[in-house]
Model the fold of this input.
Amino acid sequence: MNPIIQARAATGDEGASEASRLFETAFSHSPEGVWSAPGRVNVIGEHVDYNGGPCLPIALPHRAFLAVKARDDRRIRLVSPQTAERVDEIDLDAMGPKGTAGEVPHWAAYIAGVAWALERDGRGPLRGFDAALWSCVPRGGGLSSSAALECSTAVALDELNGLGLAGTAEDPDDEGRRILVEAARRAENEIAGANTGGLDQTASLRCRAGHALALDCRDMSTRQIPFDMGAVGLELLVVDTRASHSLADGQYGRRRADCEEAARILGVRELVEVDDLDAAMTALDDPRLRSRVRHVVSEIARTRAFIDLMGAGPLEGSRLDAAALLLDDSHDSLRDDYEVSCRELDVVVGAARAAGAHGARMTGGGFGGSAIALVDSDRLEATARAIRDAFASEGLDEPRFLSAVASGPAGRTR
Ligand code: ADP
Ligand code: MG
Done:
């Protein structure tokens, strides 16, 4: 393992042992099992999910591990070393959405919220549970540590309550998992109060090892696209800038509002229905809305082209050059037209390109979080060093590097 890749993924055994040990220390008895779910990184298709467009996430090898034992009552008790906080008093009959009397504090909302959402969906009453969380998904880095929490909970509750929705990680029930995705998304939106679409939860529950997930956000239908970069001598380097700019929240809402307004003016339900970009540019007076639409429509085209390239054969030669250009163009469009990049993300992308990456782009919502670069395997370390040096000379805090291999979905680990 290259020493510069600091954020190593725990193996299933390591993660399950950490979570079990923590469970036994906290609750003085043994868990019934350990379930886990991955974080995700989106290869291309950014800020198009809420416009009905396609995206292409992979599941990270980095996972959240949840050791769980069902209870005979309706209480939930939770512990996580990464917050040094224990939450003892959640009552499934009293909990409710953020901003109400039953509000659940902080990180516990992502876990307890899934039980709440499954019950709202008519899957209850569920049993209470004790759970210990141990995760190696970087937190707040745009790599969906939150979905990893929700989705590990979803598969655990599925099995402990005999809901029969998840299948196994090796043989997943894709239809049942769509229901779990909804519960996890609702937990995040309503109980944790974070306004996100279903991309993260879909990736964590429905990705397959060795594949990227082509997700059509019109109807959340999926296609598995073989994604084995190692086989063609490439690696997907993920760089967590560790920057998080406070304007992120409001800006996300404003971008969505811009898209809705543009769709209304253009007379379409969602921007995915815009098929003539020139006509749309003529129809929109506001330069800001024009830029937003130009990003969304061009990003949808780039994502479709990228998916086609992946299906056309190994990512080598001219296909690799074409893929690199799509990744680069995606970043430039997010930076210039959608205005969701920031200095840290631009520094990663600039340094990665200068070091010879085959395309680099910000990934996730922007204003901090992570960027990706497609690099020759034997250039992985040199590229990471070049990025680290660029951060140092810009006076920025050191970023964190992960190597992303397309990994398996949520399921039982032990
Ligand atoms: P991201 O999903 O990109 O990592 P979010 O802001 O959506 O960022 O989710 C991060 C939140 O998820 C944290 O603030 C915390 O509440 C919760 N979380 C994630 N991992 C853990 C963990 N290991 N222990 C406790 N809470 C966690
Ligand atoms: Mg999140």
